[in-house]
Amino acid sequence: MQTPYSVHIAEQSKEDAALAHNMFMQSKLGSSFLAIYGDASSVPDGTGIGVGMVAYDYHARGQQVHHRTLNIGKGQIVYNGELEAIAQGFEYASTVAWKYDEVHVFADNQAAIYRIKTPSDNPGQVWQLRCMQAAQKVVEAGSRISLHWVPGHTDVAGNETADQLAKEAAKMSPSSSMTSLALTGIKIKQLARKEWHAYLAKETPAAIQKNPRTYAAKFTWKILKKICIPPGTKRETACAFYRLKIGHGYTKSYLYKRGRAETDRCHCGALQTPEHLFLSCNRYSSERKLLKKELDIPTLTLQSLLHTKHGIEATLKFLGSTGIGTRKWYLGEIEEEEEG
Fold first, then answer.
1. Disulfide engineering: 50 pairs with which of 166, 217, 282, 329, CB 3.0-4.6 Å?
2. Does the pTM of the predicted model rise above 0.85?
3. Per residue in 66-97, pLDDT tens?
4. Where are the domains of the chain?
5. Does the pLDDT value for residue 340 go beyond 70?
């Protein structure tokens, strides 16, 4: 679907984008140009999400000609306020477009801008439809309208004014008591996390007492919406990582307990556990030095290797080069022992 407006997001740093924006606005002084800035805010002592919008007439040397504040209530999120600010800007432009050759609407929230850019029936459609309807009126009046990203908090005067208006609006009486689906989803996730934490707090001590080597005794619980393995990791390496982390996999200590290995000892004589393979087995001392160097830590621990973002990335490289924890690696260990 073709929208009656264009959308522009500069691929510059915030500082460079702000400088370019201010230079562009200076060049528009005296022209038939309307600049509209919108922003949204939430403050600690506020009564809801505040929305601010301000417009400047550049034919009148950049004089402020309109502003509006609105509080959309506590049942919304700031992202919704950003969408409302953009829609407010488009709708104001539709009432005065006949005065101008060109209208630019500015916002500092790229997620909201992308939502207005792409027609779809996903959440946010109501604001997009408002923008499309208002923009069509602008076009019919003989003007052009476009939506632009402008970096926040970088000395862009119009954006700073919109931000201040939004903060003031956040303390006003709300215009609505409606609760958005987005906020409902956030509250459901928060409730689920709370219930998980309560369950883990209750069950973890008993689990550790029953088995001091259990997962909960080694690692702090992290409730995440996605796994920590980086995209593109080979399936074999990812499987080895998780097997070693939970202690259930191709190690002799685990397989011996289940009658699937003749010994629980490593070739070096130590108990072959994940801890031993990662932290002390002399066969992998050179790879371990590289691992320690990459992590830049004096002492390796399972917590640092298997439970931190940087550690997981480095450990996956370690597993990829050694093959530890894979079926192929384990069978190679057995074959080597039989030949020896």
1. 166
2. no
3. 999 999 999 999 999 999 999 999 999 999 99
4. 6-181, 235-339
5. no
> Count of CB atoms within 10 A of residue 297's CB?
14
Give the per-residue SS3 of the chain. Answer: CCCCCEEECCCCCHHHHHHHHHHHHHHCCCCCEEEEEEEEECCCCCCCCEEEEEEEECCCCCEEEEEEEEECCCCCCHHHHHHHHHHHHHHHHHHHHHHCCEEEEEECCHHHHHHHHCCCCCCCHHHHHHHHHHHHHHHHCCCEEEEEECCCCCCCHHHHHHHHHHHHHCCCCCCCCCCCHHHHHHHHHHHHHHHHHHHHHHHHHHHHHHCCCCHHHHCCCCCCCCCCCCCCCCHHHHHHHHHHHHCCCCCHHHHHHCCCCCCCECCCCCECCHHHHHHCCHHHHHHHHHHHHHHCCCCCCHHHHHCCHHHHHHHHHHHHHHCCCCHHHHHHHHHHHHHC
